[in-house]
Amino acid sequence: xxxxxxxxxxxxxxxxxxxxxxxxxxxxxxxxxxxxxxxxxxxxxxxxxxxxxxxxxxxxxxxxxxxxxxxxxxxxxxxxxxxxxxxxxxxxxxxxxxxxxxxxxxxxxxxxxxxxxxxxxxxxxxxxxxxxxxxxxxxxxxxxxxxxxxxxxxxxxxxxxxxxxxxxxxxxxxxxxxxxxxxxxxxxxxxxxxxxxxxxxxxxxxxxxxxxxxxxxxxxxxxxxxxxxxxxxxxxxxxxxxxxxxxxxxxxxxxxxxxxxxxxxxxxxxxxxxxxxxxxxxxxxxxxxxxxxxxxxxxxxxxxxxxxxxxxxxxxxxxxxxxxxxxxxxxxxxxxxx
Length: 338
Ligand code: SF4
Fold this sequence. Notes:
By secondary structure, this protein is an alpha/beta fold. It folds into two domains: 6-160, Rossmann fold, CATH 3.40.50; 187-337, Rossmann fold (3-Layer(aba) Sandwich), CATH 3.40.50.11900. Helices cover 51% and strands 12% of the residues. The termini are far apart.
């Protein structure tokens, strides 16, 4: 029997936003998809060894995930993420990611680095799919189109699940058919107290949803009885309206989403506080963090900036979250009494 081509996807960066699209497309082309392990200390340390010192922790972790796939796959999938909305670009580290990995000095399987660029000439998505298919030797246009349509349908479903409040790992399981949406929703609603404190947890998906990178901030807030709102739970069209509020939008895709979400939630008085998870050494975040802080201050909403790096300790994060949520709770009681 003919062996299927194995394609490895690192469980980091764009994985948290685009995994269903990548996976379904590759599988419909006949490939076997292998995902790297959950992030752990070894993955981080391996990544640190092979990455430049001043890289942010998500990039170091990404490199570690690539190393985890060596000897398990025929290709490693590292698309060159340029633009997902036709306007903003991804941060420069995303743009250079395939080269950064390729020239790290480690012997790797061939990298699929097709350009994901919806900016400029129409047909960017089609060109991307064609390029990926060709890289693994599938040249039949009918097969390529069928795989692309199936992948786009799954990606839409995934985005709908996130909008309904599912976290990426849960939404992946629903998409794969290993969990039922209803079970997850039941779990979600039964864990909340009657009038929970609402906190916006803002930051890039690859930092927030990777429990190792973020020291489990999402779960910790849930355990503290807090209702957590992330940007994926806000309809894009509503967030986009806030692109007109700032004198100038950011150049970077995820930075805009984080900032617009913050502005939307403040404007609609939807949250008691904002927590911004930011990676040490992240250039874009130096501006996003300050913007969110100032906007929260103007709206009279408490703001906490949580900077993460490879030395972030769980104890420190827990203490800061407890202090912040206690303060939000006390404010709530005070405003009710007044
Ligand atoms: S946006 Fe910031 S955290 Fe994300 S990859 Fe770029 S530098 Fe790193």
